[in-house]
Amino acid sequence: MSSSAFRTVPASADVVIVGGGVMGASTAFHLAEAGVTNIVVVERGELGRGSSGKPIGGVRAQFSDPLNIELGSRSLRAYREFRHRPGADIRLDSVGYLFLLDSAQQTSDFEAAVQLQNSLGVPSRMIAPDEAQHLCPYLSTDGLVAAAYSPADGHARPGLVVQGYARAAAGAGVTIATHTAVSGLDTAGDRVVAVHTSHGRIACSTVICAAGAWSARIGEMAGVDLPVRPVKRQLAFTTPISPPAPRIPFTIDFSSTAYFHNSDDGLLLGLADPDQEDGFDTTWTPEWLELFRTVARRRAPALAGMETAGGWAGLYEVTPDHNALIGRSTELPNFLYAAGFSGHGFLQAPAVGEVVRDLCLGREPFTDISPLGADRFHHGAETRPEAHVV
Description:
Elements: E1 12-18, H1 22-33, E2 39-42, E3 57-59, H2 66-80, E4 97-101, H3 104-119, E5 125-127, H4 129-135, E6 146-150, E7 154-156, H5 158-171, E8 175-177, E9 182-188, E10 191-197, E11 200-209, H6 215-222, E12 229-238, E13 250-253, E14 258-263, E15 266-271, H7 289-299, H8 301-304, E16 308-318, E17 325-328, E18 335-339, H9 345-361
Parallel strand pairs: 1-2, 1-11, 2-8, 4-13, 11-18
Antiparallel strand pairs: 3-7, 4-6, 5-6, 9-10, 10-11, 12-15, 12-16, 13-14, 14-15, 17-18
Helix pairs in contact: 1-5, 1-9, 2-9
């Protein structure tokens, strides 16, 4: 769906969603499906060009925190049904996720997580290095202690998901205003009453912040602290591989965060640079590939020498405990937020869209997301560190 820029935005709306990425699009779809159609989605660029712009996104339910497992599982089911609801091919490939573990401590932590995942219906299991190598022939088993594998996980195309949700939402009457930047919020008493944009002011009853890495700035406009910082992450594509690469799981070397999986006619390679400074810069710098190659020489030697054909840089939206911020502002009850997913937003987007819809409509969500409230960092409440972070 190509949505052109609006010269003006509607003067009023029931709901203004700030951010046209996967979280904003999912929220708009779920609200519209529930009958709320006087919605404006405000996006400063094109849909899905922020953190959702990554070419391939992993989808998984392998987490260490029960709430993340629930959000991941429910979203996986929605992605499997996506071609029927809302109705789009998102190129879902259920190849599984394979975490490679090289210490007794990692193995013991993942064993506990697999038990928890199994109790919540996730078909993950611990496997030996030899079976991991069978699933992913590129692996060297030297130094591998064990691996964790779930065949239900995999990857899909975030851009197609954003377009699928947005097309269905627009078809239900939602206004999608692209190339429209938010410049301020008006508050009166304990409510947000309007959103100022580059194409006009929108009076509104509810504002939902789904602005990804930019969410802290939107929060500031309302006086709401959303502790989200932007961190650049980079990936690269190999040149076409002949004969074709075997179909492999989304494979992650847990100690180094190096990962790789199939991508069209080659492989996609990624790794989190531990020295990457915070910031909004998304310039792709091929030098980081040497970090990946260093890991690959030890863990998947054939990958170390593979030729690459360009890459991509995007932003992670990171919170202090690597868990999302989902909820309703305590100071401004009509300001809702879904942000700070720390790399697992795409894979949780369908379930989070449902949760935000329910919060907006005053319904009870399918699970208690109060532990993900943004004020958890101020109240001395127990934060929920997520161990399975890449």
